Amino acid sequence: MVDTLIPEYVKRFTCIGGACEDTCCSGWTVNIDEQTYKKYRKVKHPEFKSRLQDHVVKNKHNPTPNFAARMKLEQSRCSFLNTENLCDIQLNLGESFLCTTCSVYPRRTNKVNGLLEQSLSVSCPEAARLVMLNPEGILFEQHQDKRDSFKWISADIETRGGSVSDWRSFFEEYRYVTISILQNRAYTLEERLLITGLMYSELQECVSGNKLQDIPDVLGNYLRCLEDGTFHGAFDEVSKRLDIQLRICRELVVLGLKHTPGSVRYLECSRDMMSGLGIGDEAEDKQIEESYGRAYAAYYEPFMQEHGYMLENYLVNYVFKNVMPLDSSSLFESYTRMIMHYSLIKIHMVGIAGHVQGLTTDTVIKLIQSISKTFEHSVEYFENIMTLVKDNGFMSMAYMSILIKN
Ligand code: SF4
Question: For the chain, what are the domain ranges?
């Protein structure tokens, strides 16, 4: 038994197999671990013996315990995915013959200071529904669990016992306060993101000025101000520069289109978004701004008033799953990365809403799931975004506010 921390939705997840509107076995490489590869080589079943020989390719150049071989893809689909979108290996040989990649997905397990933390990736539609569709928000549970439910550790992080001058040693405190802000519904989601940004900016100043001893006070102060209402009305004056916001978002979309999308569902979403905003129709910037403004006021804002919890849950899951802020080399960079994910989702939501004249929870699930499936595993795409942000001097609270406020 091991100590674990999980959002309560994790327990409710089961793969819906053939009823799934997408499938994890298309568009992605399926790596096979060493143990499973050995099992495949011993299969006697006449049909499967030759299928496995033909469709499992040994990793000859750089084998590792997690990557001993890979499945051949046929038209971007795993060779064992049948016409009903079911896995032939699971159906014929049993669940124990699934490789670790398939048996673990969409779960992600991190080991943080000895505690095993499990979450789900929203790149799976069923997981996305469990993560985002709970109006009450995400609750966390700490208990003891069987070690084998956590067999693949994605990241093993130790922040205690290091140097006292390491900003990472306050990881648990950062995360607790970040999630507390994101889940405080006394404020709009935009206000919560702005408060988070101000806090990360102040924390970054402590790190840059070698004043790590001030970090607990900064965190405590934000929690106090959050509760006593100090932040109400604090952001009314933040500048609304739709031109700048759309310029940045356009760059994100262009970078995204250069990347080969792993999901047909994402291509449908991006096409609808571009049609809703008039991007690609040689529309003038002014016209795109007007389309954005109309769709935002008519559809996005009303939808968010009722369903703001969906993005709140997405963000809380993001913070937990990505062990924010340890996902970046600095505190403010980690915050910027989160805002880039949020902005990419928001511009798509507004554009799609303009195209179909409304938003539904199903549309938003499809969008966020397919964006996640396309970009979450592309280290390159988000590194390109961060380079763009840094090279253009956008990594500041002033620019983040513009992205959040419009
Ligand atoms: S994407 Fe999720 S629900 Fe769909 S087949 Fe994969 S694990 Fe199952």
Answer: 25-104, 107-157, 167-228, 242-405
